[in-house]
């Protein structure tokens, strides 16, 4: 994994994106050399370069929006083709919309067909080569875990399920005296050699310290220091989860990790760029979705009259309460007893129109006005109701940390996890929110925005 503006990105995914960008640019350029001239034998270089770059970037965006860089399973030729076809279809639609505004980007019918055909072929070949390379044992990270308790069990489970660009081979666990064993006996390594000797013997690329109590007499501090000085990378479980799952896990979190772990950028430059991003993203989406909002408003009125909008108090930056604006998706008497209630699966309070606009996230669109007013950001932790916040702050440690930045319309928890409707769900989402609060950047905001397109298109996590 590599870090770009504090966010962990798979090396293989980064290499794949870079190679595909070059492949798409080459496809457009080569095809243009064959077809694209001004009739006098001279290439229109300005249009050629701009059209080729636009084609490559739009296709890369389309593949990103449909999850093409979130590799989680083995991909053969058939699976690759199935995943690429809708991406190129979305790319064709977006390019058509751009060409309607900028006709000079149009290659021409013949060249466009050739560009798409050569580009798709190049992407398929690139993916097959990269995926086959990713399966090589030479690219596997060999992990040696220190500890055999519940934390080590969760780390091994994550490493075993991490099936994609970044794959692991778990060597085993070195048990620590006084810790309850929670891993299979087959995963335990014999004690006798030093950690450094074991790391070199098994060719470990990394040692992960997964011990909950580091103050016990059995914790091998000197041996871990010896490993670090001997050139073997040593990390703790919190760093492992942050890097591989984009989570700051509650069960492995120490206050010192938040204090000394870096991140939490609240500088003037970050605030200014985030505000500019909020206004640009919200303004663009408001303009594009205005017809959709008008149709949604009319549908709500036709189903059961008004009101169209629903205001609800939510907790925002520094614990301040504000009124969030949404399209009404539930009956007017959804909470007639006055007690806030989590939305459940197939909740009977949701109207027919409400079910549709929730599935497509249309009910969230009026919150753009909260962004314009400065109460919310476009990307950030989702704001919760004060009633639930009081309960969650009482039951969950560090829950208040998510209020150190503005809440958002979309966020890392929204694109990585299902709809939250319980304290357990709130804990899972908090782990993503803490990661975002710690590592937030414009780069991460853009990635979340792209992932949001996939969530909206496929209706993931809605209720």
From TrEMBL:
GO terms for cellular component: membrane. Pfam families: Bac_transf. Keywords: Membrane, Transferase, Transmembrane, Transmembrane helix. This is TIGR03013 family PEP-CTERM/XrtA system glycosyltransferase. One of its GO terms (molecular function) is phosphotransferase activity, for other substituted phosphate groups. It is found in: Membrane. Residues 274-457 form the Bacterial sugar transferase domain. Belongs to the bacterial sugar transferase family. The chain crosses the membrane at residues 12-36, 48-69, 81-101, 107-130, 279-302. It is a multi-pass membrane protein.
């Amino acid at each position: 994994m590599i870090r770009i503006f504090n966010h962990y990105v798979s090396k293989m995914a980064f290499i794949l994106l870079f190679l595909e960008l070059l492949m798409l640019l080459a496809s457009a350029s080569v095809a243009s050399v064959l077809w694209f001239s001004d009739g006098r034998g001279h290439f229109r270089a300005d249009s050629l370069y701009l059209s080729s770059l636009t084609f490559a970037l739009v296709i890369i965006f389309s593949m990103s929006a449909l999850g093409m860089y979130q590799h989680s399973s083995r991909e053969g030729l058939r699976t690759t083709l199935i995943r690429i076809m809708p991406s190129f279809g979305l790319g064709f639609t977006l390019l058509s919309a751009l060409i309607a505004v900028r006709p000079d980007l149009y290659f021409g019918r013949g060249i466009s067909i050739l560009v798409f055909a050569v580009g798709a072929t190049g992407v398929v070949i690139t993916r097959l080569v990269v995926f086959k390379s990713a399966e090589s044992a030479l690219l596997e990270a060999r992990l040696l875990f220190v500890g055999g308790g519940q934390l080590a069990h969760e780390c091994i489970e994550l490493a075993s399920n991490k099936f994609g660009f970044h794959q692991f081979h778990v060597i085993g666990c070195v048990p620590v005296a006084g810790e309850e064993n929670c891993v299979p006996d087959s995963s335990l390594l014999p004690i006798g050699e030093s950690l450094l000797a074991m790391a070199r013997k098994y060719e470990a690329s990394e040692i992960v310290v997964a011990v909950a109590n580091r103050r016990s007499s059995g914790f091998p501090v000197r041996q871990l220091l010896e490993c670090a000085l001997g050139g073997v990378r040593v990390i703790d479980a919190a760093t492992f989860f942050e890097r591989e799952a984009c989570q700051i896990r509650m069960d492995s979190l120490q206050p010192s990790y938040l204090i000394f772990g870096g991140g939490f950028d609240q500088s003037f430059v970050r605030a200014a760029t985030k505000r500019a991003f909020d206004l640009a993203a919200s303004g663009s989406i408001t303009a594009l979705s205005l017809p959709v909002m008008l149709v949604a408003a009319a549908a709500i009125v036709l189903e059961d009259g008004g009101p169209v909008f629903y205001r609800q108090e939510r907790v925002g930056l520094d614990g301040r309460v504000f009124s969030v604006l949404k399209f009404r998706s539930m009956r007017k008497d959804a909470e007639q007893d006055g007690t806030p209630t989590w939305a459940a699966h197939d909740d009977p309070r949701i109207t027919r129109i409400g079910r549709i606009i929730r599935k497509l996230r249309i009910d969230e669109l009026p919150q753009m006005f909260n962004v314009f007013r400065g109460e919310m950001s476009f990307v950030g932790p989702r704001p919760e109701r004060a009633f639930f916040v009081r309960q969650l702050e009482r039951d969950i440690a560090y829950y208040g940390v998510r209020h150190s930045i503005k809440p958002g319309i979309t966020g890392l928890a929204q694109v990585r996890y299902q709809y939250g409707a319980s304290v357990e769900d709130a804990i899972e989402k908090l782990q993503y929110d803490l990661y975002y609060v710690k590592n937030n950047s414009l780069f991460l905001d853009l990635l979340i925005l792209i992932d949001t397109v996939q969530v909206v298109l496929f209706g993931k996590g809605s209720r």
